[in-house]
Write a structure and sequence with these properties.
Elements (H helix, E strand, L loop, with lengths): L2 H7 L1 H20 L4 H39 L6 H4 L6 H54 L4 H25 L10 E4 H11 L1 H6 L3 E5 L4 E4 L1 H17 L7 E8 L3 E8 L19 H6 L7 H12 L2 E7 L3 E9 L2 H13 L1
Parallel strand pairs: 2-4
Antiparallel strand pairs: 1-3, 4-5, 5-7, 6-7
Length: 345
C-alpha cells in the first residue's frame, strides 16, 4: 500500500473536503469575518483534515502491508486468517470477519468432499478384493486344465490381476501411511516373491531372470516394495526384445544407502522422453505401440517410493537398455529403536 494509491483511492473524499472548505469560505465572507479569523479557521480545518487522512493511512498501511507479506510467505493461502493481527479499523474488521467465514465454509466443504472421496475409495478397495477372488479361482481352474487355449486365458487373467492390483495401490497411495509398516526386510525374499509371481510369463517369453548380491536388509514395507518391483519388472517384460532377453537385479550397499538396480536389455526409452516417464498416464512412443500400456505403473512407483522415503531414478538408451534404481536410505536411529522394542517385547 503506497501513498499514491491511497490518495487516488481517497480522491472523492478530497474533492468533497475542498468543496466543503469553499462553502465555509463563502459563509465567512458573507458574514464579513475578518481575515485573521478566516486564516485561523482555514489552518484548523486543513490541519484537522490532513491529520485524519495521515492517521487513517498509517493504520491501514500497517495492516495491509502485514497482510500482503504474510500472504506471500504462505504456501497454503487459505490459512492467512489464522495468522493475521486484529485490525483496529472497521474496514479491516469487516475483511477479517469475511475471510474467517469464507475459510470456515471452505473447510466444511473440503471435509464433505473428503468424506465422499474416502467412502468411494473404501468401496473401490472392497470391490477390488471381491473381484480378485473369482480371478484367483479362475486362474486355479485354468491351471488344472492344460491346453493352448487355457494358456491364453491364464495370460489374460494374469493381466487382469495386475491391473486390479495397480488400481488398489493407486487408491491406497493417497493414505499410504495408514497401510504400510516400515521395518527391516531382506531384499532377496521380496525379489523371490516377485520372480515367483512372474514365473509363467518369464518362461513363456524366454527371458532370463538374473539376481545377484541382493541378500541385504533395508528399511521398507515388504508388501509395498513387492508391488513397486513387480511394476518395474512388468514394464521390463512388456518392452523386452524377442531374442536373448534378460532382466538383471543387483543391489549395492553404500555407507548411507542401499541401491537396488533393475536392469533389462529391452527396447529402451528415447532420451527426450526420460524426464516424463514418471508422469501420470504418460506412455511415450513405446506405449503407443504397446496397446496394453496405461502409463500409470511408473507414476504409482514414484508416488509410493516418495511415501516410503525411497528415491527412484531411471536411465535408458533406446534399443539397448533400461535401468531403474531404487535407493533405500539408512536410518541408524530407527534400527536402535527397533532393537529396543524387540528386547522389551
Amino acid at each position: 500500500m503506497n501513498k499514491k494509491e491511497y490518495i487516488k483511492d481517497k480522491i472523492t473524499t478530497i474533492i468533497i473536503g475542498l468543496i466543503t472548505y469553499s462553502i465555509i469560505l463563502l459563509i465567512l465572507f458573507a458574514f464579513k469575518v475578518n481575515i485573521e479569523a478566516t486564516i485561523a479557521i482555514t489552518i484548523v480545518y486543513l490541519v484537522g483534515i490532513i491529520t485524519i487522512v495521515v492517521v487513517e493511512y498509517c493504520k491501514k498501511k500497517v495492516f495491509y502491508d502485514d497482510f500482503q507479506k504474510k500472504l506471500i510467505s504462505l504456501d497454503q493461502k487459505y490459512l492467512i486468517v489464522e495468522i493475521l493481527n486484529e485490525p483496529n479499523f472497521l474496514e479491516g474488521k469487516i475483511l477479517t470477519d469475511a475471510l474467517y467465514e469464507i475459510d470456515k465454509s471452505m473447510i466444511e466443504k473440503i471435509k464433505e468432499y473428503k468424506t465422499q472421496t474416502q467412502d468411494f475409495k473404501e468401496y473401490v478397495e472392497l470391490w477390488i478384493h471381491e473381484v480378485k477372488l473369482p480371478v484367483s479361482s479362475l486362474t486355479l481352474m485354468v491351471h488344472n486344465h492344460k491346453g493352448e487355449q487355457n494358456k491364453k486365458l491364464l495370460e489374460q487373467l494374469s493381466r487382469l490381476d495386475k491391473y486390479l492390483e495397480q488400481i488398489l495401490y493407486y487408491v491406497r497411495s493417497e493414505n499410504a501411511e495408514k497401510d504400510y509398516l516400515i521395518k527391516e526386510i531382506n531384499l532377496a525374499k521380496v525379489i523371490s516373491n516377485v520372480a515367483l509371481k512372474n514365473k509363467d510369463i518369464l518362461l513363456e517369453k524366454n527371458i532370463d531372470f538374473i539376481v545377484s548380491d541382493v541378500n541385504i536388509e533395508v528399511l521398507t514395507d515388504s508388501k509395498w516394495l513387492e508391488f513397486i518391483i513387480n511394476q518395474i519388472i512388468d514394464n521390463s517384460i512388456k518392452y523386452s526384445k524377442d531374442k536373448n532377453a534378460y532382466i538383471k537385479i543387483v543391489a549395492k550397499e553404500e555407507h548411507d544407502r542401499v541401491d537396488l538396480a533393475i536392469y533389462d536389455n529391452g527396447i529402451g526409452i528415447k532420451e527426450e522422453e526420460l524426464s516424463r516417464v514418471f508422469d501420470k498416464t504418460y506412455t511415450g512412443s513405446n506405449g503407443r505401440t504397446e496397446k496394453n500400456s496405461t502409463g500409470m505403473g511408473l507414476y504409482i512407483v514414484k508416488r509410493l517410493c516418495k511415501k516410503l522415503g525411497h528415491k527412484v531414478s531411471i536411465k535408458s538408451k533406446e534399443k539397448e537398455f533400461t535401468c531403474v534404481k531404487i535407493s533405500f536410505l539408512k536410518n541408524d536411529y530407527y534400527k536402535v529403536l527397533e532393537k529396543e522394542v524387540k528386547k522389551n517385547s
